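Backbone description:
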Amino acid sequence: MPHFPKTDAFIQKPDGPVFGPVPATFTGGTILIEDDAVNIAEGDTVIRKLPNGNDDKHYVTKVNFYPGGNGVIGSHYQIEFTKTMHTKSPPQINIHTAQAVQIGDNNTQNIANAFEALIKNIDNSNASPAQKEEAKSLLKQFLGHPLVSTLVGAGVTALLGG
């Protein structure tokens, strides 16, 4: 079996934890790890310490596992990587004469949907008409409070005809 020079590497998960050291072979465009129990996945970062003390970071783009038995190398992972972390580009935002603007990053404004669903559930419940009206009246009173309407938005109060 050929001898591949190994370097201690550490695996950092996207949410921060770092594991290792793990013996790894850095072969230019691929990293080989012969520990078949290592927990590595796309999105992780493989880090090795350089002689100057800096961290050499490799952002994992693909993980292939090869079971042993070919006589040359045992079970191992072949890891493809990029040296550049992929991050989202900030969106370009142009606003021309707007009265109200909401800007987010792939988010949704769902508070109005939640109150619409609540009102629909009240209307579709088995409660008496008087109980349904009382529940909607209390909800309208809650949404009509100045602090709540400021935080939630006046549009939600309009759902109840207010």
Q: What stands out?
A: The chain has four helices and six strands. The first helix runs from residue 111 to 124. Residues 111-158 form one domain. Residues 43 and 87 are 11 Å apart (CA to CA).
